[in-house]
Amino acid sequence: MEADNKQILEEALSRRTIAVISHPDAGKSTLSEALLLHSDAITEAGAVHGKAGRRGTVSDWMDMEKARGISVSSAVLQFKVGDAVVNLVDTPGHADFSEDTFRVLAAVDAVIMLIDAAKGMEAQTMKLFEVCRARKLPVITVINKWDRPGQDALELVDEILTRTGMRSMPRNWPVGDSGHMLGLLHPDAMTMNRYVRAPGGAKKVLAEPLSAEVAETEYPEDWQTAVEESSLLEVDDQFYDREAFLAQEATPLFFASAVQNIGVEELLHFLMKEGPHPQAREDAEGAPYEITSDFSGYVFKVQTGMDKAHRDRIAFMRICSGVFERGMVATHAQSEKPFPTKYSQQVFGRDRTTVDTAWPGDVVGLVNASSLRPGDTLYAGQRVMFPPFKPFAPEHFRVGKTGDASKHKQFRKGIEQLDREGVIQVFFSERRGQQRPVLGAVGPMQFEVVSARMESDFGASVSFEPLDYSVARDIDDDAADILRERQDCEVLYRSDGTPVALFRDPWRLRTVQRDHPHLLPDPPGSRT
Ligand code: G4P
């Protein structure tokens, strides 16, 4: 198929590629499902969403995820809203998987940030806001669970401003306090939506629009309060400004009850009307690579064992430019080797369908992509490479050993595989030997994933021996030669060959830095 620039632009303009992110339990899965419900991709909630003891969500396929009720790996849901297409990329909520979340956020154009009305800004919310800032991602904020008693609406707005520096631009405002939700005021039209709830929120909620006069007559006090509060914010300069939203200076704000799917229709409508569409992406040199250029794609996630029957390996790629056609032979920029794309699929939880054509913003699963790693680029025609991921500095270290001496081969293969997928970082040293790799994690729960995956995918049990390190710094070969002589740090090599120095704590690092200031400069944004 010959696609011209006009067609590529049209397709890109009709796409929204987003992630829903939050501190765990704020309602990420519930909201994702409510979005599907309102787009008519599903007709009944509960079919998709579920935690421990409930039916599995489309995004939770690993046993561990189901057992613990957390989402470890990211799935991609594509659905249509009218003629437009939404690619909703799921992210793990738990802080231990923040490196994975960071990678996923490289694949989206905007995020929906959920805040629990009762809990306000939580630890992971703050981290995620920081990641969005680093990634220059516009943020739509949703204050969720308004059906339950929680904080005051104005206080929440204030908290967002003081903690993130971003002013909120309310796109709806609650009529009634949290836990006593009567409906939502729409500041632009000064009307109210009252909702006819479906039992348990399983079906799409119906909005009943009320004029200001009717709202005032029916809910004199609550309507007045809502009008006053929302106009207070406008006086405070919090009127809607799309440029400020796209420049991450301000965040459009919605109040919602995801579980009753209230406020979701407005959110989806806003996303389609105002949300950013795919645009030029910076290449490794920092130059913009236009969406109308030849085909290019960016791998942000590699996952094995999604399909238990096949145990295959699937690489998720976001299309950055041009048109992707199944069967095309792309080039893997990191190796300059050809990469055939015969098996390209769209993954909807456990379900898969073959993808024949995909456009900028779409996410395609490439099956049996054993040579691809997160951060890799595929292109056709003009050569391009997007910036690779810089690994997070791990803070937890354990020596991994096979529990069964006869399974050395499986053990090695499994560890190598999980390293390639970015599940864990793997380090070696001559002193420790190849059979005793050091595994480095940003959060300890990653070790549980390693253990579960090694057992289920490679039939090799792993035992861990904790190491008393909490700080890692990438170094060069000269520094490695000098630091290897010291007793207060250990030099290992990451599997990509980069030497890394490990320290028990930031104070040990400081001591070594004092002795060799030029060897260990602090990376930008370093917390130690
Ligand atoms: P997560 O993906 O961010 O971790 O959160 P998830 O959607 O799984 O929601 C966490 C809990 O919060 C769930 O309750 C869910 O039903 C509830 N929840 C989500 N949105 C709302 C909302 O708008 N209002 C209220 N009241 N609750 C909400 P759970 O107890 O873990 O499970 P269950 O009650 O669904 O069985």
Automatic annotation (TrEMBL):
It is found in: Cytoplasm. Gene3D superfamilies: P-loop containing nucleotide triphosphate hydrolases, Peptide chain release factor 3, domain III, Translation factors. Residues 13-279 form the Tr-type G domain. Keywords: Cytoplasm, GTP-binding, Nucleotide-binding, Protein biosynthesis. Its main location: cytoplasm. The keyword Oxidoreductase does not apply. It comes from the Bacteria. InterPro entries: EF-G-like_DII, EFG_III/V, G_TR_CS, P-loop_NTPase, PrfC, RF3_C, RF3_dom_3_sf, Small_GTP-bd. Residues 514-528 are annotated as: Disordered. Coiled coil: none annotated. Belongs to the TRAFAC class translation factor GTPase superfamily. Classic translation factor GTPase family. PrfC subfamily. PANTHER family: PEPTIDE CHAIN RELEASE FACTOR RF3. This is Peptide chain release factor 3.
